What we know:
Elements: E1 9-10, E2 13-24, E3 27-47, E4 55-73, E5 81-98, E6 103-123, E7 126-146, E8 149-166
Antiparallel strand pairs: 1-3, 2-3, 3-4, 4-5, 5-6, 6-7, 7-8
Amino acid sequence: xxxxxxxxxxxxxxxxxxxxxxxxxxxxxxxxxxxxxxxxxxxxxxxxxxxxxxxxxxxxxxxxxxxxxxxxxxxxxxxxxxxxxxxxxxxxxxxxxxxxxxxxxxxxxxxxxxxxxxxxxxxxxxxxxxxxxxxxxxxxxxxxxxxxxxxxxxxxxxxxxxxxxxxxxxxx
Length: 172
């Protein structure tokens, strides 16, 4: 689309996860939610390349949360490795800005997340996790550059996560 700025985003996510798993034999089904502080940003110095005045613009993801189901099958001699698939709801706060006529806006967005990973027990109640997630928060009009000229921002990103988990044993 004429005037659109397309660019990559990058930056760290730091947060926490809370979840619950049910295991039957080697099959594991669970639910988990996480909340992350985010410093994921992107921008371009030439937004609006088809216009008379190309100019800087950008996007920030200030927070990201997910609520996901997951399913996996334990492997290894002791069943201590859990490859799994995950997917569900993603929410985040997107901010966009454009310097042509200094304007910006932000919105809380809902979207989806899907991915896969592997978790491995390293001690009786401790595990480490490596996970890939694709997040799509869709597109939203955040502000008008000038009256009647809306600016839409969208976010689709891939992330690699590393985690350290503690398992609470709730059995008596």
